[in-house]
């Protein structure tokens, strides 16, 4: 009989706080975004599409977060032999893992805009913002 194990996962409260921070930062930059927070199993915990964000950005944000669950390697390096793609695994990375005490508990993906605000969004994250 297999023993039980403890599973660590991003909480609903944490996921909502992450979404709120991204929405605030994107709003300050005037760039509507979609943001997705997934748990460690790839299940959506929080999702938001800001008014004006492209409709496709919802799917792209989720795909970026799902891809981040596999770590920093490109998708082509993490797929099992013989598998060319997984439906939710994006060709583009840019999602970020959510790590607490060395354990990956989820991932975040952000999409929308024209790409020029990306460095400003990352600068905000580096300063402790979204």
UniProtKB/TrEMBL annotation:
Pfam families: HbpS-like. InterPro entries: GlcG_carb_metab_protein, PduO/GlcC-like, PduO/GlcC-like_sf. PANTHER family: PROTEIN GLCG, SLR1406 PROTEIN. This is Uncharacterized conserved protein GlcG, DUF336 family. It comes from Nannocystis exedens. The lineage of its organism: Bacteria, Pseudomonadati, Myxococcota, Polyangia, Nannocystales.
């Amino acid at each position: 009989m297999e023993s039980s194990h403890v599973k660590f996962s991003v909480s609903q409260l944490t996921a909502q706080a992450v979404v709120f921070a991204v929405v605030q930062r994107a709003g300050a930059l005037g760039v509507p975004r979609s943001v997705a927070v997934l748990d460690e199993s790839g299940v959506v915990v929080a999702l938001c599409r800001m008014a004006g964000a492209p409709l496709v950005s919802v799917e792209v944000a989720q795909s970026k977060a799902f891809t981040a669950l596999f770590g920093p390697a490109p998708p082509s390096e993490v797929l099992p032999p013989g598998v060319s793609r997984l439906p939710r695994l994006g060709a583009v990375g840019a999602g970020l893992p959510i790590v607490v005490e060395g354990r990956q508990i989820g991932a975040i993906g952000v999409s929308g805009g024209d790409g020029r605000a990306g460095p400003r969004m990352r600068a905000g994250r580096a300063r402790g913002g979204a």
